[in-house]
Amino acid sequence: MIKQKKTTLPMIPLRGLVVLPYMILHFDVGRQKSIKALEEALATNQLIFLVTQINENVKEPDMSQLYKTGTIAKVSQILRMPGNVIRVLVEGISRAQLCSVTGTDYSVAEIIEYMPKTLDKIDINTEALIRNVRDVCEKYFEVENKVSPESIAAVISTAAAADDPGRMCDIITGNIDLPIADKQMILESIEPEERLENLVFILSRELELLKLSSRIDEKVKKNMDKNQHDYYLREQLQVIQEELGDKDGIGAEVREYREKFAALELPEEAAKKVEKELDRLLKTPPGTGEGTVIRNYLDWIADLPWNISTEDNMDIKNAEKILERDHYGLEKVKQRIIEYLAVRKLSGGIKAPIICLVGPPGVGKTSIARSVAEAMNKKYVRISLGGVRDEAEIRGHRRTYLGSMPGRIIYALKQAGSNNPLMLFDEIDKLSSDIHGDPSSAMLEVLDGEQNSTFRDNYIELPFDLSKVTFITTANRLDTIPGPLLDRMEVIELPSYIEDEKYNIAKRHLIPKQLKMYGLKAGTVKFTDDAVHDIINYYTREAGVRNLEREIGSICRKAAAKIVSEGKKSVKITSKNLESFLGSHRFGYDLMKKEPAVGISTGLAWTQVGGDTLDIEVNVMEGSGNVELTGHLGDVMKESAKAAISYIRTKTDEYGIDADFYKNCDIHIHVPEGATPKDGPSAGITIATALVSALSGQPVRSDVAMTGEITLRGRVLPIGGLREKSLAAYRSGIRTIIIPQDNLKDTEEIPENIRKDITFIPAFSMQQVLNTALCKLPVYSDITKKSDDTVPNASVHQNVEITNRI
Ligand code: ADP
User: Fold this and answer.
1) pLDDT over 60 (residue 796)
2) Which of 183, 334, 430, 725 is catalytic?
3) From the CA of 343, how far away is ligand 1's center (Å)?
4) What gap in Å lies between CA 521 and CA 332, rounded to an integer?
5) Is residue 496 annotated as a catalytic residue, yes or no?
6) Residue 613: beta bridge partners?
7) Helix extents (H) in 613-765
8) Measured from the CA of 330, which atom of ligand 1 is nearest?
């Protein structure tokens, strides 16, 4: 129990300050009443009662505005200061409870004094609390580094040495910067244990607060350091740029861009976008990747022909002249092009159809498009679509991708440098789609007159008007062009060339072109007519003239070398010396010399590179009825083979074939050049002929080619591409072609001079095919003669022989 004593003392109310026992401190006294109280104390026993005001702004506080616990202090010293202020030094002695306040000149407090209490015995709880206080206190001083280590040690040791926990708390509280309410709380804790508990609580909270604020401090400091670091570097860079002559770095660059864009008179949306990007550029620190991305973008915008266009020449006569000058033959094609230009002229170019030039490689599609561009006085750009499978190749990548670029359309426009060029989409039939989107849908938008005035590239992010662009497309075949795309186009077919056309193209165009290319004057390299024919027949086998041009180029190159090294004036290319330029013949021409063979027949195929001959080989071996088909055959072709076998099974009697051949033999059908995929039904009669020949042992004529689909009843159905197929057969030296009866009318498409050399045998049934194709029709007696050896082994040997010969 704490000893108490009732007494009265002069009182000073304190503002923003709590005085605790054992505390020595000075403060200034200014209020008259307080000065009087001080004087009274000095006149008596030097003791004074100090109590803190609840609200420090109140001038004359009454009881209710004062805390109820204060400290009795001894006044050790006073100092009169200027302005009627007294500085006073006091030492706290004991706690006291305020009971009432009286007095008029100065306040007299009636108080109950609590005598300081030392503990006789420190129990375990108190001991724990003491340690706790010391611990927290030490940590607090560690973090709060305002107090010097010496005074900390002094505080703790005085507090500890006294062996008086209550006093320890008072000393610690007196030396720590705590809020008034906390100090008052310690003052009001009369019992030492209570004081210990409260102090642990207050100190722990303060420690946490200190730690937190020091962490925040550190962060702020770090940020400040980084900012300062960047600032410093930027300043340095500025100095370097100035040294290098770039007065104000990015600022100057942005100004330059602005001037450039102002001259371009961009559409409103583009101008806004550019301004935004320039703002961004200004804000990006120099030398960063982001800056490069923005510059790239701005350069693209600056390089696009937003407002640049060329003036169209719509003079049809001039167009005719240019087309004629650049191309031999192709009369129908030229005619269609002229019609197209006339329609464009009349309609003012609005919604003119898009031309699609279709034909095998090397027949002049690209070349025609180039001439049209020249005739119309348009810039010419070519976009190759072969193998494009990603929509982004057409439409560009978004700028979020690293290294992203605009698509091919925008790229071509930049290349053209005008917004109304002639854009050639080469090989539109080779577009393919995969997981990266469908490029043909992007193409649809580009080619659609309704939509293409606001074509949006993913990279450019701005609409570009494509409606003034003239589009021409090319394709090798129509069947792989997506329907909606094909619908938008007007198809013009370019057929394969016959030998005579090739000869004329070579003489008039290819040779002069190649001579010029290798810097040779006209007449320095002369080609005899025979030499040109020989190049066509023995060194190329194609629908167009691409390889022909290449071979002529290679001759010119070698001739140029000869002229230079041997000091010759001119070189003459003849049939005789051709081999010394191009090596030995690459293709045999005279197939007529071939012997008739068993189990091998000549078919005709129609490929995207034009027509071609296609040999079909059949081997029949002793076995158990297996049928093997090799040579990369498609499903339709395999089915044709099966249909042919079924048909033959129903006709074994007529053809003198063992009725059980499908059980006793293994049949192998092979179409050479195994790596090239082949498909389609038109090899049906060719397979059937080879099969009948192999099974019956009757050889097939080697000067006959055939094409036609077969039904199970042996009927011959019509096929497509007769013109190309016939030209291919003609090129191979074949002069007799078996065709389906229904295709007879198509022979009119074949050039007259070739048609007159070929005998077309129309066939309605398989029987008619065999009548022509086999050297001799098999008769039943043939098979009876061989009845002891039903498997026609002879054919196996002959096949080997034939295969080697081809
Ligand atoms: P494509 O685009 O059909 O594959 P190109 O236009 O590239 O064919 O033609 C190949 C080469 O043959 C070009 O040098 C072209 O000028 C030439 N050529 C093709 N056809 C003719 C022709 N009828 N008259 C003149 N040169 C031609």
Assistant:
1) no
2) 725
3) 25
4) 33
5) no
6) 604
7) 635-649, 652-655, 661-664, 684-696, 722-731, 752-755
8) 23
